[in-house]
Amino acid sequence: MIISGNWPLCVSRVFSDQLEIETSFASPKGEKAWARKFGSDYWVYPNWTLDLKAKQRALEQAGYSLFVHLVEPIPKDVDLKKRPGLWNWDLDLL
After folding, report:
1. Strands 50-51, 68-69: pairing kind
2. Short-list 4, 11, 16, 83, CA closest to 50
3. Do the beta carbons of residue 45 and residue 75 sit within 8 Å?
4. What is the pLDDT of residues 68-78, one digit of tens each?
5. Cβ neighbour number for residue 67 with a 10 Å cutoff
6. I want to staple 43 with a disulfide (CB 3.0 to 4.6 A). Which of 8, 12, 13, 89 is the partner?
7. Strand order in the sheet with 10-12
8. What is the rounded distance in angstroms from the CA atom of residue 39 to the CA atom of residue 44?
9. Among 36, 37, 31, 18, which Cα is nearest to 80's?
10. Which residues, including other chains, have CB under 8 Å from residue 2's CB and lie 6 or more apart?
11. CB 72, CB 38: distance < 8 Å
């Protein structure tokens, strides 16, 4: 289970030629992201990290036993936002 680090928003085989790799860009709503190329894939990351470390005990109780912390170097021009990093943890989908 990925429990913390830079988690990509998406992985794609295509990337706009109007954007630069390893450089911050913004969505029409102002959300910032950056991309890195791995082989023929482009990984697009938000400018904030996943952080479920405080939820590890609940995940252990759910049966998870292996926890991974992703470490991805951040490009120099990317400023990470201070966010809780819970992604979709608190959604009420049921």
Report:
1. unpaired
2. 4
3. no
4. 999 999 999 99
5. 14
6. 8
7. 10-12, 41-46, 32-38, 25-26
8. 14
9. 31
10. 50, 68, 70
11. no
Going by DSSP bridges, is the β-strand pair 68-69/2-5 parallel, antiparallel, or unpaired?
parallel
72 exposure class (CB count in 10 Å sphere: 0-12, 13-18, 19+): middle
Kindly report the pTM of this predicted structure: 0.84
Would you list the domain boundaries of the chain?
2-69
Evaluate whether 80 touches 48 at the Cβ level (below 8 Å).
Answer: yes
Residue 14 contacts by C-beta under 8 Å, 6 or more apart in sequence? 42
Burial status of residue 56 (CB atoms within 10 A of its CB: 0-12, 13-18, 19 or more):
middle
Helix (H) or strand (E) holding 61: helix 56-61
